[in-house]
Write a structure and sequence with these properties.
about 170 residues; mainly alpha; 6 helices
């Protein structure tokens, strides 16, 4: 028998659960009817330059949760050999999201995990599409250390802490 909550759960056209609640710039759900930030459309296929450009725009706007969705589209639609680059960048964006939400433990872990993945990918000599892999890795490790050392809720401003993905934009 279906519960009241299950009956009112938002679903997509295929019947999968999808929350239709509006969200803020850090991806936190807001009350139904509240004005939220427009979501990133899912499944958008962009080239690497378009992915980096859109993700940087979102990071600069203090919306790392949305930037992670752009990187997620890239890893799902791109070549398998690039998966670690895009997944690592997505983890960095989610790490920044968690740090900005006040989840210091999860934020630091994801920043370090993403940094390791990007570093390993770049060390292998694969194409990084102008991404400053060493700079992004250094940024992530530095932020992870600061967050783990005492950055609490409200101490991380996602827009101010946004990484520069490329040496020059």
């Amino acid at each position: 028998m279906e519960s009241e909550q299950e009956r009112h759960r938002d679903r997509d056209q295929e019947g999968r659960a999808r929350s239709a609640r509006p969200r803020d710039g850090l991806g936190r759900p807001l009350a139904y009817g509240a004005e939220g930030v427009a979501r990133q459309p899912e499944g958008v296929v962009r080239g690497p330059a378009g992915t980096v450009r859109e993700a940087q725009r979102l990071l600069d706007a203090g919306m790392p949760f949305h930037a992670h969705e752009v990187f997620e589209d890239a890893w799902k639609s791109g070549p398998a050999g690039e998966r670690d680059l895009w997944q690592g960048l997505a983890q960095l964006a989610v790490g920044l999201t968690h740090a900005a939400r006040g989840n210091t433990t999860g934020g630091a872990r994801l920043l370090l995990r993403g940094a390791g993945r990007v570093e390993d990918y770049a060390r292998g000599g694969a194409e990084t599409y102008g991404i400053d892999a060493a700079g992004v890795v250094a940024w992530a490790r530095g932020l992870a250390a600061r967050v783990a050392a005492g950055g609490g809720a409200g101490d991380v401003d996602a827009a101010a802490e946004a990484p520069r993905l490329r040496v020059s934009r």
